[in-house]
Sequence to fold (329 residues):
Amino acid sequence: MGTKINKIIDTIKMDKFKNDKRIIIFAVCLFIAIVLWFLNALEKNYTTNLSYSVKYVNPPDKLFLANTPPDKFDLQIEAHGFTLLRYKLTFPFTPLKIDLSDLNQSMESKENPISIPGDYLIRQISNQVSKEISIIDISPKTISLFFDSLKTRMVPVIPRVTLGFKPQFNLRGLLSVEPESLKISGPASIIDTIQFLYTDPEVFQNLDRETEKMVLVHTPSNTHISEEKVRLLLPVEKFTEKAVTVPVVLLNKPENTKIKLFPPQVTVSFMVGLSDYGKLSAGDFTAAVSYDQIVAGNTTLDVYIDSKPPFIQSLKTSPGSVEYLIESE
Fold:
């Protein structure tokens, strides 16, 4: 058995191939025959199927495509072998365009939906492919288009973010987006229901400095927005504690009534950004109690902050309540 295998190996050694001119001549002839057969085959016409992505453009004036028609067409085409080979090797990635501008006349009848027959689609597509290619059939054979009146308006953008800060860091004020509003266009029936546009969710961790980022805006179905992205601004800075002494004001006190508060002032402590630390004073706060608590028979009055700057955090008052004395005339 081993001897037979060795004989077979010996017969296919390259040395014999090199020395045997008959084998070389046969191989060359075989290669030429294959090439000639291939070229002859390409001379014939063939039928094949191709799948194309499509894009719908130029809707009728003041109208908007309200539904989502097929985004791909399957075409049965016929062409010369050479043409098909060349076309498949250089298959275009640009979507075919279905021009809807010719539908203006059809829309005068106010029919909705409009059915687009296959022959109309084939004519449009034939103008965009090689003239050497014949389109035999198309699938789907008919498409239905729903139109609605086009409406455009400005809509505010709401950021969707999750924020995490390093210790002692926080937002100084509110985060913001630029631009604050975007123009949205689409069917009136959809646009009338949209009150806000929202960014895609974003997560920020360990923030310790002012940050900005371009973020995507979610586009509602069958609409178009003027910008795909907005700039998100996060005014982050380091915070520190500060305290001021603020006099307590008695509100809703009747005229000719004298009341003394004990103590007459409280300490207000809070966290504030370093950039605003030196700007704040007791005059930026109003600590108050209400005469209504006296009428209710309370022996102490709860202190609340009636006015304060918007950019401070973690506000506390000490003491949280005061006693009072009603002075007689």
Summary: The longest helix spans residues 21-42. The longest strand covers residues 236-251.
